[in-house]
Amino acid sequence: MKDMFKITFMILLVIIIYLYRDNITNYITDDILYKGSNKVLTYNEYFLNNDYIFVQNIDSSSVKNYQELLNIFYTTINSGDDSYSFYCKYNDCINDVSKLIEDNEIISDINNFVHPFNSFSTININVESTGRVTIKTKKVYNSEEINFITNYINDFIESNINNSMTDYDKIKVFHDFIINNTIYDENFNKETAKDPYTAYNLITTGKSICGGYSDIMSIYLNIIGIQNYKITSPNHVWNLIKLDNKWYHLDSTWDDPVASDGKQYLLHNFFLISTDELLKLDTVEHNFNKNIYKEAI
């Protein structure tokens, strides 16, 4: 009789463990293995409270599906926090993280949705067998560069922007100013150049490539309160801007052409245009992933 009771008890225990396996796993992971070790995500002044079709901000330390996995990467990078850990809570989560590590294109795309001052130059992702994932980032811009760029743009705003101007005019005057005071670095060499893709380098040297042009525009737009993000194709990057509840492309790099006659030109061919207009002008360098940058569709 006692043996029968033990067998019945064990069967019931196994059933209970199976039925509540997720709760038990969560308890062991959260309250025993990592109790008190998982810090709260902090948000700096450059955090953008913007949600997009592809990624949204999320308030959680665990992910239960692939969309939440993308969201936790976006939120972590967007927050400006240099290090954060979360827990995988669905079956294929570890495999999905591994795929993101192997092919970091999606994470690089997510980097385009955040403020340039919170964007990373390098990202390290550590996965533990328990399902804990730790993200560590190194920012593109240091504090000295941020202060320099911010003061530079604020000086421009004080001298050139007033309340009677429309958002369109505010964008155009800065677009023209940047092009008139910089040139595209056609001698750019990735191996020898020192940060030629940043807004800081563009300001201090008067030269850059598309990364510097798109960053300085994005930083300016964020300061004056116009929603935007960057779009990348395999070899190019430019801005997507929300104006009057519609999204438009702006490519100041291609509006600042390298001319064979050595003269400087200011164009508006790629200034606040629709996707249809953009692709009529160029379908190679501006061939972007429409499954990610969905606001442009």
Question: Could you provide a short overview of the structure?
Answer:
With 297 residues, the protein is of the alpha+beta class.
What does this 3D model show about the protein?
The chain has helices at residues 2-19, 21-33, 66-79, 93-102, 105-111, 143-160, 167-181, 199-205, 210-223, 275-281; strands at residues 62-63, 83-88, 120-127, 132-139, 183-184, 207-208, 228-233, 236-243, 246-250, 271-273. It is α+β, with helices and mostly antiparallel strands and 297 residues long. It has three domains: 1-37; 38-139, no CATH class; 143-296, Roll (C8orf32 fold), CATH 3.10.620. A four-stranded mixed beta sheet has the order 1-2-4-3. The chain has a four-stranded antiparallel beta sheet with strand order 7-8-9-10. A two-stranded parallel sheet has the order 5-6. Helix 7 packs antiparallel against helix 9 (210-223). It is elongated.
Question: What is the CATH class name of the largest domain?
Answer: Alpha Beta
**Secondary-structure arrangement, i.e. CATH architecture of the largest domain:** Roll
User: What is the tally of helical segments?
Assistant: 10
Using only C-alpha atoms, the radius of gyration works out to 24 Å
Global shape: elongated
Mean pLDDT: 89
| Helix/strand class | alpha+beta
- Element string (H = helix, E = strand): HHEHEHHEEHHEHEHEEEEH
CATH fold name of the largest domain = C8orf32 fold
